[in-house]
Model the fold of this input.
Amino acid sequence: MDNFREKRGYFAEIHQPIEEILYWALAILTYWVQSKMLASIPSWLGCRLMKRHILGLVLAGGQSKRLGRDKAMISFHGGQTQLEYSLSLLDAFCSRTAISSRENQRCVGEVSCGAELVLDLEEVKGPMSGVMAGLRAAQGWPILALACDMPMVDGSLVLRLLSQRDSGKLASCFIGENGRPEPLLAIYEANAMEELQELSRKGEFSLRHFLESSDVERVPCRRPQLLASVNTLEDLGRIKEKLAEEST
Done:
């Protein structure tokens, strides 16, 4: 009996890494399929086998005051708007997708792509409003939040965050170029809601402060420049030029 237990333990040890390798191979293949890099391969291949029980949430409720136009409707990747690109990216890895937006944000309703629509919480300010609304809609699931104004985020970056996730902590996030946690591409576990609610009751609406002061998995980012967001016309021109260089 002891010999049998030893053998069973041995096979369990080698099975887990093999399972992980197969999972990520399917993840990469699915992302390629959905981004039309391998358009000739049937899109159903591997799609349902590798998705995790996470709600992929596109944060699209910002007012874009500095830029002067809706960031969600800007195109950086061919004919896709940034909202469509972000949804497609999250849909490759998440069993459910949703868009958080302001009430009566017409463009979001027109480009929902089958995603759930979640209204930002009126009593909460900034991106924390969308994250908390997403956690409420997720009903016990974690969420993978991605701001719609981060066009340089790609599948490899999302994969790295998922692979480094610690579900036993309140969140998992990248460390940005400034050495601080990046709140707008991050996984928020379901039990983060209680602490976020407590912060909002105190009038504290900074997701970055939450990530800095809480029990969070902080993941080094090999290319933190990919976490850049579009806030001004200068940002818009610089990032479009950078993406054009990388595509040639």
User: Anything to note?
Assistant: Confidence is low (pLDDT under 50) at residues 1-16, 34-47. The first strand starts at residue 52 and ends at 59.
